[in-house]
Write a structure and sequence with these properties.
The chain has 14 helices and 34 strands. The protein is an alpha/beta fold and about 675 residues long. The chain has five domains: about 30 residues, no CATH class; about 170 residues, Galactose-binding domain-like (Jelly Rolls, Sandwich); about 90 residues, Immunoglobulin-like (Sandwich), CATH 2.60.40; about 250 residues, Glycosidases (TIM Barrel), CATH 3.20.20.80; about 80 residues, no CATH class. Strands 23-24-25-26-27-29-31-32 form an eight-stranded parallel beta barrel. The protein has a six-stranded antiparallel β-sheet with strand order 3-2-4-10-7-8, with no helix packed on it. Strand 24, helix 6 and strand 25 form a beta-alpha-beta unit. Helix 9 crosses helix 10 and helix 13 packs parallel to helix 14. The chain binds (2S,3S,4S,5R)-3,4,5-trihydroxy-6-oxo-oxane-2-carboxylic acid. (2S,3S,4S,5R)-3,4,5-trihydroxy-6-oxo-oxane-2-carboxylic acid binds next to loops.
């Protein structure tokens, strides 16, 4: 006790420059580590927001970089930045001022806005002043399209709540915090990731920080339609499934109309404010890739009315084939990251996606894999309009903490928020549960539970996940086939041939009866998926992994790999279609060492050999090579080549096409 008192006096002296009532009112220990206040989670996600009345808060916001979290109420010595203290007589000590702080455009990634922030991973404060006229009849919701990664919201100095999840949309009912006239909104965004977050710290993409999606103040009546779902549930019967949820647990009328189809239905919710009903429609024109027909759908309840343009189609898998509206379909795809063409940062706007999709269209693609996290809602809306099929994914990437219930809850929240936002988008045919997750029992349980969440919300789409490459045993047989091939060619040195001979002699009894190298995708998760997605890097990574084990030149192995690629077999014991969700090779545009690694010629060669291989694999019904455009990655430092870009793009960061672009475009036009 005495010691504590002495300490306390010490702190009083040492920090006497702080406002005395803060010091005197607290125990010193408490002074340095406050108990964090309660941050409420967001409310239930608002659906159909584009048809609602809103005030747009996009545009210039002031920001303060706060690496020490000095402005956070629970960590601050002076109450924190949300108080937005302003000097009045010039004798107040205030060490922050949003109004004189720099500004940046929101939505936008801070890494792209300020050179100093390119690699920054930490907290930044955003501040916006806005005028508001409150009304007693309405509610106002703050809707944030995306904010990476942890977001804490304060309005007029009060805590509104917080959300964890970098790319999904969320909203808070802020009616009680708003005042008539000027309002001060402060948002703390921290893009720090951990071993328990989704994703973890290590990702082969830029963990852009900032408010990455639209910021809207949405107005609704006090009783409103929280969200509504309308999808084709039976192609043969032309049956639609309608679900709607009111914000209040009350019995009320809900009207659904599709004027173009002469449909005017009236339903009654149960006492939880929920309605689920099927009904049939004659003369329905289906949505497909050549005619992406959309109908305007209007839903009304009480004083509330929302509307959306919705297409109706069926995506299905029978055996090893994929069908769209009963017609067999091959996915001619391309993978993407959410980065705009010829602009640093995160792609968030309709304009950004329009430009990106133009490239997909000129590749003759009918499918886009939006890897590895949700993009803003504008992408799926555009795909609906353009007739491009879409894969959406959550950032369950590589090895996340499968056993932490909080990690699982976080992934589940991202998946639910994504599905609830986009469940009426005809273009979305696949919900992906994640990417390259290594096998373990815990991972199986985690992924199966995610799948159950997805289908409980929407059972009209296919479920997939991009699986990891074959197991060690399978790759041992790859060594055998490379060695066998090595014995046939003059470019192989005599000493390399000797190594190959001893390998083939030793392994002959194991693989001697097989004609080709073949991969069997046996990840048990495949049993739970509708489409088996598989990432493979023949022609790029695998040879470099084998060099040390075999002891021959990498150049020899690469040449041999190209020789055997066209005959490689990719299959799975599960009777389902395979989608090659990634393959690719890095190339720097105009790289001078033609034909060498990093050259366009080398990348093109990988594409030629991959396409020759894949078209001979009948279980492969879709491909989405990696990747449309060079993208930022902190894992790619090689100077003058990568410069912190992953160079596997078919176009460079400015949108200039590499050789392989045309190879893929021609393949889609003529052979697939
Ligand atoms: C992968 C990952 C992807 C990487 C890619 C690469 O397997 O799924 O996120 O960017 O490989 O370029 O290595």
């Amino acid at each position: 006790m005495i010691l504590k008192k002495i300490n306390y006096v010490f702190y009083l002296l040492a920090f006497s420059f702080f406002h005395t009532d803060i010091i005197l009112s607290q125990d010193a220990e408490e002074f340095f580590s406050r108990t964090p206040p309660e941050y409420n989670p967001p409310g239930e996600l608002l659906g159909w927001i584009d048809s609602r009345e809103y005030q747009n808060l996009n545009g210039k916001w002031h920001y303060i970089i706060d690496p020490m979290n000095n402005g956070l109420p629970e960590e601050s010595f002076f109450g924190g930045f949300p108080q937005n203290k302003l000097p009045s007589e010039g004798l107040e000590l205030i060490e922050y001022d949003f109004e004189s702080a720099k500004t940046m455009e929101i939505p936008g990634a801070w890494n792209a806005h300020e050179k100093n922030l390119l690699f920054y991973r930490g907290p930044v404060w955003f501040y916006k002043n806005f005028n508001h006229k409150s009304s007693n009849n309405n509610l106002t919701h703050l809707y944030i399209g995306a904010s990476n990664f942890t977001t804490k919201v304060f309005l007029n100095g009060k805590i509104v709540g917080s959300y964890e999840g970098g790319y999904t949309s969320f909203n808070f009912d802020i009616s009680e915090y708003l005042v008539d006239g000027n309002n001060v909104l402060t948002i703390h965004v921290d893009n720090t990731l951990s071993k328990d977050s989704v994703p973890t710290k290590k990702t082969d993409w830029w963990p852009y920080g900032g408010i990455l999606g639209d910021v809207l103040l949405i107005s609704t009546p006090k009783q409103f339609i929280q969200n509504a779902y309308l999808q084709l549930s039976d192609l043969g019967k032309r049956e639609l499934l309608f679900k709607a949820q009111l914000n209040l647990p009350i019995i009320a009328n809900v009207n659904l109309s599709i004027p173009e189809l002469n449909i005017y239905e009236e339903f009654l919710t149960n006492d939880s404010g929920f309605i689920e009903q099927k009904f049939n429609v004659d003369d329905l024109k289906l949505w497909d890739t050549t005619n992406p027909k959309l109908y305007t759908v209007i839903v009304k309840s009480g004083d509330d009315q929302i509307s959306d343009d919705i297409g109706f189609r069926e995506i299905d898998v029978i055996g090893k084939k994929i069908f769209l509206n009963g017609n067999e379909l091959k996915l001619r795809g391309i993978s993407m990251h959410s980065e705009p063409i010829d602009e640093e940062g995160f792609a968030f706007s309709r304009k950004h996606f329009k430009e990106l999709l133009k490239y997909a269209e000129s590749l003759n693609a009918n499918f886009v894999r939006a890897a590895h996290y949700p993009y803003t809602r504008h992408l799926s809306k555009l795909c609906d309009e353009l007739g491009i099929l879409l894969w959406e994914e959550i950032p369950v990437y590589w090895n996340i903490n499968w056993t932490n219930p909080k990690t699982q809850a976080s992934a589940e929240s991202m998946l639910s928020q994504l599905i609830k936002r986009d469940w009426n988008r005809a273009s979305i045919v696949i919900w992906s549960l994640g990417n390259e997750t290594p096998y373990s029992t815990q991972r199986m349980n985690f992924m199966i539970s995610q799948k159950e969440t997805a289908i409980s919300l929407d059972s009209t789409r296919l479920i997939s996940a991009a699986l990891l490459s074959g197991n060690a045993e399978q790759f041992r047989s790859l060594v055998y086939f490379l060695a066998l091939e090595g014995l046939k060619h003059d470019f192989v040195l005599p000493e390399e041939k000797a190594i190959f001979r001893s390998i083939t002699d030793q392994m002959k009894y194991l693989y001697g009866d097989q004609e080709h190298f073949s991969i069997n995708i046996d990840d048990p998760l495949a049993e739970h998926l509708d489409i088996i997605a598989y990432n493979e890097y023949f022609g790029w990574y695998y040879t470099s992994f084998l060099v040390d084990q075999i002891g021959v030149r990498e150049s020899t192995l690469r040449k041999l790999m190209f020789k055997i690629m066209p005959s490689i077999k990719i299959k799975s014991q599960f009777n389902k279609p395979i989608h090659i969700s990634e393959f690719g090779a890095g190339a720097k545009l105009n790289y001078p060492n033609k034909g060498k690694i990093w050259s366009e010629e080398y990348q093109n060669k990988v594409y030629e050999h991959q396409l020759a291989m894949l078209k001979n694999n009948p279980q492969v019904q879709g491909i989405s090579p990696w990747i449309l455009k060079d993208f930022r990655s902190m894992m790619r430092p090689l100077a003058n080549v990568q410069d912190y870009y992953n160079r596997k793009g078919l176009v460079d960061e400015r949108g200039r096409k590499k050789q392989a672009f045309n190879t893929l475009a021609n393949f889609y036009a003529e052979q697939w």
